[in-house]
Amino acid sequence: MDARQIMTADEIRRAIVRISHEIVERQAGTEGLVLVGIQRRGVPLAERIAAAIAEHEDVAVPVGALDITFYRDDLSLIAQQPIVKGTAIPVDLNAKTVVLVDDVLFTGRTIRAAMDALVDFGRPQAIRLAVLVDRGHRELPIRADHVGKNVPTSRDELVKVHLAETDGEDAVRIERRGDEA
Amino acid sequence: MRAVEGAGAAARGAGPVEGAGTATTEPATELPWHHRHLLDVDGLSAADIALVMKTTDAMKEILARPITKVPVLRGRNVTIIFYEASTRTRVSFEVAAKNLSADVVNIAASASSVTKGESLVDTIRTIEALGAHMIVMRHGTSGAPYLAAEVFSGSVLNGGDGWHAHPSQALLDLYTMRAHLGDLRGRKVVILGDVLHSRVARSNVWTLTAMGADLWICGPTPILRGFDAWAARWANGRGPGGHAGFTVTSDIDAALADADVVMALRLQRERMDAGLLPSLREYAARFGLTRERLAAAKPDALVMHPGPMNEGVEIAPDVAVLDRSVITEQVTNGVAVRMALLYLLSGVHAGGFPEGSIGG
Question: Which of B36, B167, B279, B329 has the fewest CB atoms nearer than 10 Å to its CB?
Fold first, then answer.
């Protein structure tokens, strides 16, 4: 299989530490900050960013999990309903700065759905976006505020993020569509 | 467990043939839902039931939000037609469908063309022509939803048919029990009362034995008719694998001893043949769930009732309001379970759609 590795475990770790600094710098502190990971791999990433912030700021930033299934715009196009992973927003989001965290930014449709879901929980002061990989090909006017790595891709490629929490290892690879088992 | 029943049930994909005993834990692989209709629970695998429970958890989370509405069924028409009286099931389905942003049409059969002699098949065809994608149906005749499923191109949810099945009730009962007890394997669950006329009891037999509960059915001998034979079939290995027991008895003290759950059923006076029971008072005296009788059960045993209650007949008024009574919780969970069912069924289409995906 001609999967090409584009991030190693060390590079993922450094990207998360850098993003954690960027988030705090942008917010000028941690006041009012909430991290919300998008199911599934955004959730462990959000937890890792929170752990990095805890290390250098000595503050525990609240972390939530968001399942966007009920807000997808393509449910009528797919054969079966996706399995719902669950949402857990631990704090009131009104007037908070919410940083959405996801593994890959592609068309932007997931983020659109996530923003629709978030506003059902309240009116955040601001919503920002942190992603591990931005692979381009946006279909909606959405951009990321914090990016681990920009990766030019073609549409027929797949970006696979593996995380220890969900896949047993840390790595980002690119493969051709149809290569996967 | 039996495979998918006839009547237009969706073709079974590569479903798991999992032992029922593993059901209360997460299935090893996450298989998507593949049933187009929900006519009874006898066609659901342990993995299917686990998926309903997991999806219900997500729906409970929605019900706890400031805005209890998500757009997932936007543009879908859910038509609710009830040929029998109902408050909680009908309203519960309506609230569930509205929470998912579906368009809801309510038809009271008593005020429809049914009274002019329209046949069930014609009514279903008319509802379809009026744009329904899903039909929730209650009918006094066992099997009526199966006929509806044969002619309807969308999904049919059985909201109760005759004495036969009430699948959403069995699933909400199961959800409520699991919320308090976790794994039901080996737990003693007693269904007490008028099981003969009870579709709730029949559907619960399937789910509870599939989950490995130690099931006891208790009532006066004349209304246990048929359940003995059913228990014998299970004892001969024809039930779901790994069930912990299925006992049918008229001995209420033996049934209640050390029970984990006691579910009282309504005495269905409207369905009662003459001569089955000598009198209501005798029934209440011998089989009513009272505080004294409940003392034989475990101290924290759950008290359940699918409603509506005949207080002072099958259940004493003071028992219904005990701390361990989860009767109102059953109603609340009913909305979440029905949201989960509407969501899961809405994804299975007759013709099928090409696989697509949402881009990151």
Answer: B279
ipTM value, please give it. Answer: 0.87
pLDDT tens digits, A163-177: 999 999 999 999 987
Pairing state of beta strands B103-108 and B134-139? unpaired
Tokens of A24: 């705090």
Question: For residue B72, what is the nearest residue in chain A, using CA coordinates?
Answer: A70
Q: How near does any CA of chain B get to the CA of A89, in Å?
A: 9
Q: Is A29 helix (H, G, I), strand (E, B) or coil?
A: coil
- Residue-wise pLDDT tens digits, B277-319: 888 889 999 999 999 999 999 999 999 999 999 999 999 999 9
- B167-329 CATH choice from 3.40.1390.10, 3.40.50.300, 3.40.50.1370, 3.30.2350.10: 3.40.50.1370
Rounded to 5 degrees, φ, ψ at B137 are -135, 135
pTM above 0.95, yes or no: no
Find the CB nearest A81 among B33, B69, B357. Answer: B33
Please count the helices (runs of H) and the strands (runs of E) in chain B. 12, 9
Residue contact B69–A78, C-beta within 8 A: no
Locate the chain A residue with the closest alpha carbon to B100.
Answer: A70
Interstrand relation of A33-38 and A97-105 (parallel, antiparallel or unpaired) = parallel
Residue of chain A whose alpha carbon sits nearest to that of B29: A83
Structural domains in chain A plus CATH codes: 4-23+33-74+82-176 (3.40.50.2020)
B354 contacts A79? CB cut-off 8 A: yes
* Contact status, residue B281 vs residue B314, Cβ threshold 8 Å: no
Q: For residue A36, give both structure tokens.
A: 């919300």
CA distance B24 to B181: 11
Average pLDDT over residues B146-160: 96
Instruction: Sort out which chain B residues have CB atoms less than 8 A from A106's CB and list them.
Output: 359-360
* Number of alpha carbons in the 13 Å side-chain half-sphere of residue B316: 13
pLDDT value of residue B237 = 83
Task: Provide the mean pLDDT of chain A.
Answer: 94
* B44 neighbors B71 (Cβ within 8 angstroms): no
Equal CATH topology for B33-165+333-346 and B167-329: yes
- The domain made up of B33-165+333-346 has a fold known as Rossmann fold (3.40.50)
B57 touches chain A (CB under 8 A): yes
